Amino acid sequence: MLMQLSARWAQVEIAAAALLAVSVTLLILLNVVTRSLGAALYWVDELAIYAMAWMTFLGASASLHYGNAVAITVLTDALPAAAARLAARIVDVLILVFALFMLWFCWRWFAPWQLAQAGFDVMAFQGATFNFIYAEPTTTLGIPKVWVWSVMWLFAGGATLHALANLAAPRTAPA
After folding, report:
1. How far apart are CA 135 and CA 141, in angstroms?
2. Which of 7, 57, 62, 124 fits as disulfide partner to 155, beta carbons 3.0 to 4.6 Å?
């Protein structure tokens, strides 16, 4: 069941990443056209960068499910099959530890508990914690950067899910 949930979530991540890749292309094309017409839209650059960042994090998380992340296999290629499987399990555990740390860092950075304690009053939250994550605006779009940074929650959650699923699944020798 965990592997099915991981597979479905990876499909959502890939679909969103593909949509974001198309949007980056269209935004860059829009930027080229408007600049050539002498009427540049400066917010387009920023939006394209944020779309690419989201695409990257979602794609990276999905690659953990599909097992097609970039890897250096010089050591594992030289190992016997049993040792290669053990090395792959160790990597799975390290990925899970990394993903759990990412969740913890997101919890500390976004501080949802402290925000709730402040009654979801951003000004009171900032005064109590000196954390300005919910108030800092993007440069040209003018939206709170917290919406851009929220991809970190999706990445950390997806990476945790995929790492747990990989650990629960039987492991074969790396290809």
Report:
1. 14
2. 57
Structural domain contains residue 173? no
Nearest to 50 by CA among 69, 30, 24: 24
Whether 44 is covered by a domain: the verdict is: yes
Tally of domains in the chain: 1
Q: 99: closest CA among 45, 162, 143?
A: 162
State pLDDT tens for residues 20-48. 999 999 999 999 999 999 999 999 999 99
Residues 46 and 148 sit within 8 Å (Cβ to Cβ) = no
pTM of the model: 0.90
Q: How far apart are the first and last CA of the chain?
A: 25
